[in-house]
Amino acid sequence: MTQAVPVAVPSAARRRSTVRRRMRSGLISALWALAGVALVVVLWELSKFVGGFIPLPYDTDDTAMPHVWTMVEGFTQPEVRGSDTTVFQAVVLAALFSLLIAMCGFAIGVSVGLLLAVIMQRLAFAERALLPFVIASQTVPLIALAPLIVGIGNRISIGPFEWGTTQSVMFIAAYLAFFPLSVGALRGLKAPNATDLELMRSYSAKPRQTLFKLRFPASIPYLVPALKVSAAASIVGTVVAEISTGVRGGIGRLLIEYAREATSEPAKVYVAMFGAIALGLLAAALVTALDVYLTRNLPKEGSA
């Protein structure tokens, strides 16, 4: 009969201390992030100022490098002349559309990556057979892959379901997301030491019980960084795929449309770029929130 392993549950005081420590750490990280943004702004404007007197190896005129305040004003500009919709509103709607596709692709990629990691950890020959192909899959140029996926997908039709370009974008997002997760999860599933594994065997634990009671909890420190990379990769894959496949409604297509107006309204392009950057930060923040939830009862470094 399998015996339960006692788990030390932190006291309420320790939980409050952990929350305060994490809030303090988060505040410090936010301040450093703001300092980084301020540094970029200063360097940007300094480059424009120096470029007015000394020829630089890159163009610093207002068309290529608009002033920071011009970019800020771009948020409130109408998307189309005479329209009530601002550029900011259009970017937010496009970013939400891309986020939905990216999260669907992320979920699929994470599921596939986790399944591959479990199979490779359980079967040594599967790791030797699959891992080289998993690594080699990431050497295919994404720009070349996107039209190929669209061409194959347009021929897929199962009953009422017909594969469209949106599914192609989702597939590409999943394609980029599965690799970091599969490699990170495989390393995490192998993290338990021999003593822990011997303890589970002494309890006559089945492989499934060892997987869920020991290997998965031990893999969290490896899974979280892998999830952050996978989330960011799914955003990148979505934006690039939208540009390559011509899917309308997303931030990738909006970048192309605004780039055509770069000569007359260069700030619009940068607003769309900021929207794409915000998507990546949001994806990483969601994974960080998941990390806080999953590790809420685990002892932290420096805790008594």
What would you note in describing this structure?
The protein is mainly alpha-helical. The protein has two domains: about 10-60; about 65-295, Orthogonal Bundle (MetI-like fold), CATH 1.10.3720.10. The protein contains ten helices and two strands; from the N terminus they run H-H-H-H-H-E-E-H-H-H-H-H. Strands 1-2 form a two-stranded antiparallel ribbon. Helix 3 (about 85-120) crosses helix 6 (about 165-190). The longest helix is centred in the N-terminal third of the chain and has 40 residues, at about 10-50. The radius of gyration is 24 Å and the shape is globular. The two termini are about 35 Å apart.
Key terms:
MetI-like fold; single chain; mainly alpha; 304 residues
SSE topology:
Elements (H helix, E strand, L loop, with lengths): L11 H40 L16 H7 L12 H36 L1 H13 L5 H12 L3 E2 L2 E2 L2 H25 L4 H9 L4 H39 L5 H9 L6 H29 L10
Antiparallel strand pairs: 1-2
Radius of gyration: 24 Å
Element pattern in H and E: HHHHHEEHHHHH
For the record, what CATH class of the largest domain applies? Mainly Alpha
Number of strands: 2
Tell me which CATH architecture of the largest domain applies here.
Orthogonal Bundle
Instruction: Look up the CATH topology of the largest domain.
Output: MetI-like fold
Average pLDDT reading: 83
Name the CATH superfamily assignment of the largest domain: MetI-like
Low-confidence stretches: 4-9
What structural class results from the helix and strand content?
A: mainly alpha
How far apart are the termini? 34 Å
Shape label: globular
How many helices does DSSP assign? 10
**Domain module count:** 2
Assign a percent range to the helix content: over 70%
Report strand order across the widest sheet.
Answer: 1-2
